[in-house]
UniProtKB/TrEMBL annotation:
GO cellular component, one term: neuron projection membrane
Signal peptide limits: 1-21
Protein name: Immunoglobulin domain-containing protein
Domain Immunoglobulin: 29-133
Species this chain originates from: Rotaria socialis
């Protein structure tokens, strides 16, 4: 009897704590503008993350109904091989977390949409648009870098598949050694 009541008490306490600390993305900036070869910073500000996972992705719109999503980060784990992408996380005294995606040496091909998603039963997301302004001095460099960007994204996708397969094999090995 006592065990049953203790379980109900713990569930009720968990429910009360979650109601009082609802997670939310409070970033106000939707559009970021930068120049070619500069650093762009997209800031996803989260209040009360409650140990939920934060995901950054690059979104390519194919047409009005289709899109491709490239996973960049889950928390601080990098899923892209692009060395120009960096993620930092800082926490202030009000328990706000700043998940900053930085893109160094920005190319014209970096222009587009990026999303920050807070994992939950009903995920919370924030969409950012990066606008890149060309600098005529760097025009030839930018055209060459478009091909490099596409090649790096293909390698990144293949790397993600390799990581997934490696994770599955590691899980199987761990299950058989326990």
């Amino acid at each position: 009897m006592g065990y049953k009541h203790a379980t109900h008490f713990v569930c009720l306490l968990f429910l009360i704590v979650n109601i009082n600390t609802q997670s939310n993305i409070i970033s106000t900036q939707d559009q970021v503008t930068t120049y070619v070869n500069q650093t762009a910073k997209l800031s996803c500000i989260i209040k009360n993350r409650n140990q939920r996972h934060v995901t950054w992705s690059r979104i390519h719109l194919i047409n009005e109904t289709q899109k491709l999503t490239y996973l960049l980060y889950v928390d601080l784990l990098k899923y892209t091989s692009l060395s120009r992408y960096h993620l930092t996380c800082t926490v202030d005294q009000d328990n706000k977390e700043y998940w900053n995606l930085e893109i160094h040496q920005v190319h014209l091909s970096d222009q587009g949409y990026y999303s920050c998603i807070l994992a939950a039963v009903q995920p919370i997301s924030k969409l950012f648009h990066l606008r890149v302004i060309d600098n005529p001095r760097y025009l030839s460099l930018s055209l060459d870098s478009t091909f490099d960007m596409q090649r790096e994204q293909m390698i990144s996708s293949l790397s993600l598949i390799d990581r997934s397969v490696s994770t599955i094999f590691l899980t199987i090995i761990l299950l058989f050694t326990i």
